[in-house]
Amino acid sequence: MKENKLKVSEKTCSLKDVLEIIGGKWAMPMIYILSKGKMRFKELERSVEGINTRMLVKELKNMEANGIVTRKVFATVPPTVEYTLTEKGQKLVPSIVSLHNWGQEFDV
């Protein structure tokens, strides 16, 4: 039987790199919530149970820098900001749902 091995090189994205992007405590729940559509900052803050404002800002900046979410600012007073998953972010959703299902199956 042929054994499948992951080839890891400096030129390819490794699991370690992926986990640096989405491995934080809040990133996966935020991606899952944003998979339902665009959200304003306060809506997102209320939807992610237990997160504080500072951490939400930090995670959103990280995800924006990594091309997972887009940020759109509207010229209103006070400023309105909406966040949406990018195509790259949408492709993460099935994996996050699979991890969620695995956790439910094994009572994690």
Structure characteristics:
single chain; 108 residues; alpha+beta; Arc Repressor Mutant, subunit A; three-stranded antiparallel β-sheet; 6 helices; 49% helix; 13% strand
Describe this structure in words.
This protein is of the alpha+beta class. It is 49% helix and 13% strand. It has a single domain (15-105), classed as Arc Repressor Mutant, subunit A (Orthogonal Bundle). It is built from six helices and three strands; from the N terminus they run ααβααββαα. β2 and β3 form a beta hairpin. The longest helix is centred in the middle third of the chain and has 13 residues, at 53-65. It is globular and about 60 Å long.
Describe the secondary-structure layout.
Blueprint: H1 15-22, H2 27-34, E1 39-40, H3 41-47, H4 53-65, E2 69-74, E3 80-85, H5 87-90, H6 93-105
Concise account of the structure shown:
The protein has 108 residues and is an alpha+beta fold. It has six helices and three strands; from the N terminus they run ααβααββαα.
Based on the coordinates given, report the CATH architecture. Orthogonal Bundle
Radius of gyration from the CA trace?
Answer: 16 Å
Query: Reading side by side through the largest sheet, how are the strands ordered?
Result: 1-3-2
Continuous helix count: 6
- The percentage helix is 40-55%
Return the CATH class. Answer: Mainly Alpha
The CATH homology group name: Winged helix-like DNA-binding domain superfamily/Winged helix DNA-binding domain
Mean pLDDT score: 90
